[in-house]
Write a structure and sequence with these properties.
Layout lengths: L8 H5 L1 H11 L2 E4 L4 E4 L2 H8 L5 E2 L23 H14 L3 H19 L2 E3 H18 L8 H14 L8 H21 L7 H4 L7 H35 L13 H11 L4 E6 L3 E3 L2 E3 L4 E5 H4 L34 H18 L2 E3 L4 E2 L8 E3 L1 E4 L3
Amino acid sequence: MEIFTPLAPEFLADPYSRYAELRQTDPVHWHEGLGAYVMTRHSDCERILRDPSTFISDFRTVGDDAPPAFLSLQTLDPPEHTTVRRMVLSAMRKVEFDAWVKAVREEAATLLRSLGTEFDFVTDFAEPLGTRSMLLLFGMPSIQADETAYRSALRKLVLSMDAGLAPEHGPLGMEARAYLSELIEPWVVSPPTTGLLSHVGFDAVEAEDHRLFLLNSLRALFVAGYSSSSSMLGNAVRTLTEHGYFNSPEPRDFTAGMAHELVRFVGPVQAETRAVAKDTEVGSQSLTYGDFVVIIVASANRDEAIFEAANKLDLSRDASKHLGFGSGIHSCVGARLAISVLCEVISDLSKNFPIDLAGDPIQRPTATQRGLDNLPVHLNTR
């Protein structure tokens, strides 16, 4: 009987016990449906992420088709990846980071004031804040789109991350990518005067394929910033509420170290996929050119070989070895942004609002990126 069934309701409710079983009994697990080896140990996952010449992200190298809309920082390898990543990072370094964090914090406070004492933390707060934070980062005043269509496209794209398990989501994800690129492209081509897009220099990119890669990467950054940050906020507030964090007698500043422990414990990114570009071995399993591997980041982050009492949330822990933001050349370019926003929002919530759950959280039916559809909360005042 297949043990790795990430979209099954019982697996979605608690993937971590299944990951632990796989680490113990079958750490390099062949999954027939995915046609891939599932890696669950921290040592194996980290090795794969840090060896981009053997374990590649651009599947065209091993003969797979890749639609043009799919080619971005996340799915390219050097030298294309190096060129595009350098352009994105150069633009990000020119953004006034502290001013952006302050603006996001103010947006969060404004949102909270408009919501009253009982609301859905995911749909009413985390998701709108995720969008607004990325608009502020990019320098875009707004998304010129129907709100329903925009949210639908974002959801379809997150669902499509599980296309290996649910193929019907694949085409919808490609449509969503094209739609979201159309929303962002006018601002990339004619950039605003402030924000990340004002520093990208899209017009200076001569090669047509590099222009495509850059546009796709900016779209991917926008979507990842929205979906990962909103999912992380939902996961974090649920976990901290269940652990009584917000009802402690004295509110605390939420530090970067605490944020990294939360990313380790309930980070949204559960898995990444790589292709094998040259014969190698992981554990006792031989891998050959063209094989695929699925790196279960969430399992690596609960590996007892690296993290003592890994299934316990310990906000005093040094969680620096977690893989929640990846590792190596494809590590998340927005990790610093994500940690900063998480720290500011959680700190402000802790200082102002004891929080209780006002209903049962509803898990989003996605495996690659873990998040909530709903999180009813009740805010009290200190």
